[in-house]
Amino acid sequence: MTKAGTTLAMASDHGGFAMKEFLKQKLEAAGYKVVDFGTGSDKSVDYPDFIHPLARDINSGKYDRGIIICGSGNGAQMTANKYPHVRAALCWNPELAALARQHNDANILSLPGRFVPFEEAWEMTRVFLKTTFEGGRHLLRVQKISQLLK
After folding, report:
1. What domains appear along the chain, each with residue ranges and CATH number?
2. Which of 3, 12, 116, 138 can bridge 20 by disulfide, Cβ–Cβ 3.0-4.6 Å?
3. What is the pLDDT of residues 25-40, one digit of tens each?
């Protein structure tokens, strides 16, 4: 389980910038250290430029968990999931965030910055960080995602 004091990676494009800043402030107040991969404003940018560096670091094990945000959450999630040890889950409510952890061992939460209220995003983040992977019958399925069982 991720606990306060843990380092979390965050990245967004312009469509997720305001939500990223909101969540970063909440996380730091809760005791998390946040490594911000950008962007640094709401000026139009290309989300892969910020998501790839974060996903590489999650993939290599430098960070255990990350939060990525773009306007819809889709582009950020698709980019992150190009890495074999990344399991980025696009979530729209706390129940999906919990299931992404419990059943899929998701290590990146992808949020739609333009479509969910900030407080809902905060609740999803809290749920994502406190929920553990159930393992058991889900373990083999998760291993098959990256074809780790060859």
Report:
1. 7-145 (3.40.1400.10)
2. 12
3. 999 999 999 999 999 9
Quote the Cα angle for 43-49-53, to 5°: 130
Q: Which two tokens stand for residue 137?
A: 């019958």
- Tell me: the pLDDT tens digits for 75-121? 999 999 999 999 999 999 999 999 999 999 999 999 999 999 999 99
Q: Which residue has the tokens 């990223």?
A: 20
Dihedral angle sign, alpha carbons of residues 15, 18, 21, 22: negative
Is-contact 67 9, C-beta < 8 A?
Answer: yes
Please indicate whether residue 70 is annotated as part of the active site. yes
| Predicted local confidence at residue 136, as pLDDT | 86
Given the structure tokens 């407080």, which residue do they identify? 119
Contact assessment for residue 80 and residue 108, using Cβ atoms and an 8 Å cutoff: yes
94 contacts 122 by C-beta, under 8 angstroms: no
Of 85, 91, 103, 138, which is the active-site residue? 103
CA distance 144 to 36: 30
Q: Which of 52, 70, 85, 91 is an active site residue?
A: 70
**Is 85 an annotated catalytic residue?**
no
